[in-house]
Amino acid sequence: MLEARDRINDFLSIEKESDHASERADSYLVSMKHLRNFLDVKYPTLAKDWGNKAISNAYLKTDFKNWMKIQKKSNGEPYSNSTITIYTNALKSATSKLNLVDINQTDLFYYTSYETFEEAHNIIKSAPNFNDVDVATSNRSYSSAMILYSRFLKEISEPSCWIFQGNPKYYDVIGAVNVLDNITWAVNQYTKQIKGGDKAYIWISGSEGGIIAAGTIILDPETREPETDDPFLRGGSLNTAPYLAVNIKIERKMTSNIVLRKILLADERTKRLEILKYPGATNFKVTKEQDAVIESIINGNYERVPPTGDDTVIPAISKKRYWIYAPGEGSSMWEEFYNKSIMGIGWDEIGDLSRFPTKESMKDEMKKVYGVEYSYKNDGHATWQFANEVNPGDVVFVKRGLSKIVGRGVVKSEYIFDSSRDVYRNVHMMDWTHKGEWDHPGQSVMKTLTNITPYTDYCKRLEDIFVTSIGLGLDDEQAQYESYTPDDFLSDVYMSEERYVTLKNLLLKKKNIILQGAPGVGKTYAAERLAHSIMEEKDTSRVMVVQFHQSYSYEDFIMGYRPSDSGFSLTKGPFYSFCKEAEPDDREYFFIIDEINRGNLSKIFGELLMLIENDKRGKEVRLLYSDEQFSVPENVHIIGMMNTADRSLAMIDYALRRRFAFFEFEPAFDTEGFKTYQSSIANRKFDNVIETVISMNKAISEDASLGRGFRVGHSYFCTDDIVDDAWLSDLVEYELLPLIREYWFDESSKVEHWALKLRGAVHG
Asked: Which of 397, 383, 477, 395 is nearest to 427 (CA)?
């Protein structure tokens, strides 16, 4: 494409003598990229280059960063996030400083094969100013990064090994393996790394599941039509639309001699198999060491290596939940559960709870087994939560009766159906941190298992029991959070990299920022993702979201007196608690306020109006309701969202306005990210509606009674649903038209004009 762009430029400048040849050639390049993306997504088998091979849409920056996270330096230590970022930036940008004419692509992540990269690598090293550019990067990170990238490309070019998972609830995996010699399997991750010739294992899910076959992938992943008549389906088709899949040639069948998941969990080398850590996918990568262990089990020469240290793998979590739980009737099972480091729940007669696809199916089975005279509303809810919602990292408080707490612990495993137990076979592995007897604050709930996470004050009072009553502090367990990089932000939010850098730097410098814009420009969607991108992980413990409204007050936000069992008590608000949480930590914290201009800001912030200024952080003032000196920590950042099209709201107080930076979110129809998304929809009427809205936005901007802040945002068009005439008609009739009727409430002719155009875009 770059070569084509250069030839177009030459043609326009030389033969056509165009004064804007370069700009027009760049425009052609953008169009070519959109066409390639469209073909790769919608018709991947049609995109062919001159060598009759599918055009690669691979860009390996994210893959390389993920690979770096599991590599070790020569001293055995992992690479830090900052080092990975430095290496990544060097590979992306440093080559452009060499001004080479013999190399077409200066962003090295576009080199996806070992051979072509090595050719470029040799040209780069021979450049006269290579040493100067390399020295200018931190610790010669440019040359070091290229060595690692070469190793990375060589590794991914070699045959890989994968596990493909099937759920027996929806597909007769064993039956298919026993009958078929070739089997088709959906692919939903590593789509650019899986290739023909790779090794494949077939896995059946469930507590007694494991590997039941081995074979070879025949071809690279390609788009397939759903097979609605597949005899091994249990229920409807797993895929109702074209999907990416591979064909696997089955070479060894082990349905009568399964390589059990419990064996793999009990070995130091395989306990961290991806499928055991993050089982929610169809396909998973297997390392060479893990593959060698699996082969030794199959071949009968296996020697187990017992797990060392903590052999429980806790997956990345998005939010820690809190539960209150009764271990058996009258807490009769507490001693056994504590000694065996488990928590259990009854209802053994209905079997493995993971086999039920819905809560209703679980309750139906209870009625069959235990009788139809009860609704099983609470019991069905509790068993469903136990099997599907209690996750590793959650905190469990153990109760006895309605007035006593007898323990606390942290969940260490997913749900397990332990058929070896006589009773209470439904279990989770636990790390019980405390055992004893403490008074419960007030009266406890009666149910066996209750999610108390939404009741933040209640959770804090229970945690305080284990701080104040026994004189021990409870450091938070080191939760593992999913990585989230600036690249992830740019993939999620339609914004240029330059504007993102401006936004991030503005927030870090000013401490307080307001994201303003019209409805549907993605302010709320972007706020948490902005925080996560700066933290480089989805650490929800360092982000709090509140929403202001006309009745919100200082007492709600900071602290004030509220009714309690004994009259009135001083209750701390979310901002006070959040600041206290952030105070001892060096990491960044983010307090997000939705609809910030709906509240009386001077009234809500009170004496903290001064303290939130970036140069007043750390200074103290005495709070209104307590004899306490309070300060806003330097690591707390405030992100507010403001809808500029809300006519009912007053302007922000000028005293507060100067304490915030303001960043305008605009409709992103013209961004490369949205255009790529639009191309992937590939619907002419969808394109027509967007073009109409772009024209309407121009009219809104030029309207003296409205202006830029009332333009319609791109988020109205972002969906995971199938975009058809019905979806577009609902969008126009029930979202866009009510909005413009509000805008032009006294100009019916304009409403009718744009209503006709929008409806015509769908039905015309």
From this structure: 383
The dihedral formed by the CA atoms of 77, 80, 86 and 87, expressed in degrees to the nearest 10: 40
Return the SS3 of 369. Answer: helix
In the chain, CATH 3.10.590.10 sits at 161-299
Sign of the alpha-carbon dihedral angle for 22, 24, 29, 33 = positive
**Where in the chain do CATH 3.40.50.300 domains reside?**
486-664
Determine the Cα–Cα distance for residues 113 and 105; give it in Å rounded to an integer.
Answer: 14
Phi-psi category of 576—alpha, beta or left, where left has phi over 0 and alpha has psi -120 to 50? alpha
> Residue 53: what pLDDT?
40
Cα–Cα distance between 163 and 214 in angstroms, integer?
9
Among residues 451, 712, 478, the alpha carbon closest in space to that of 587 is found at 478
641 has which bridge partners?
515
How far is residue 221's CA from residue 223's CA, in Å, rounded to a whole number? 7
Tokens of 358: 């819905």
- Beta carbons within 10 angstroms of residue 45's beta carbon: 10
Going by C-beta distance under 8 Å and a sequence separation of 6 or more, which residues neighbour residue 110?
59
How many other C-beta atoms can be found within 10 angstroms of the C-beta atom of residue 391?
18
pLDDT score of 467:
64
Alpha-carbon distance of 316 to 274, in angstroms, equals 12
Name the DSSP class of 392. T
Low-confidence ranges of the chain (pLDDT < 50): 47-57, 310-318, 468-477, 647-650
- CA atoms 102, 106, 112, 113: torsion sign: positive
Which residues, including other chains, have CB under 8 Å from residue 678's CB and lie 6 or more apart? 686, 687, 690, 717
Evaluate whether 470 touches 477 at the Cβ level (below 8 Å).
no
Q: Which residues have a Cβ under 8 Å from the Cβ of 372 and sit 6 or more positions away?
A: none
pLDDT, residue 147, reads 94
Say if strands 589-594 and 636-643 run parallel, antiparallel, or are unpaired. parallel
Strand-pairing partners, residue 284, are 163
Query: Distance between CA 357 and CA 170 in Å, rounded?
Result: 10
Q: Structurally, what CATH architecture does the domain formed by 322-468 represent? A: Roll (3.10)
SS3 content of the chain, % helix, strand, coil (to 5): 40, 20, 40
Q: What is the pLDDT of residue 118?
A: 92
pLDDT on residue 550: 85
How many Cβ atoms from other residues are within 10 Å of residue 655's Cβ? 12
Residue 322: the pLDDT is: 92
The answer to whether the predicted template modeling score (pTM) of the entire model surpasses 0.70 is no
Would you state the pLDDT for residue 235?
A: 64
* Confidence at residue 659, expressed as pLDDT on a 0 to 100 scale: 84
697: its two tokens: 């936005």
**Dist. CA 131–CA 119, nearest whole Å:** 18
Q: What is the CATH number of domain 161-299?
A: 3.10.590.10
DSSP secondary structure letter of residue 171: B
* Architecture of the CATH domain 486-664: 3-Layer(aba) Sandwich (3.40)
The Cα 687–Cα 355 span in angstroms is 43
* Residues 6 or more apart in contact with residue 515 via CB below 8 angstroms: 523, 526, 527, 639, 640, 641, 642, 663, 665
Phi, psi of 652 (to 5 degrees): -70, 140
Q: Look at residue 673 in the predicted model and tell me its pLDDT.
A: 79
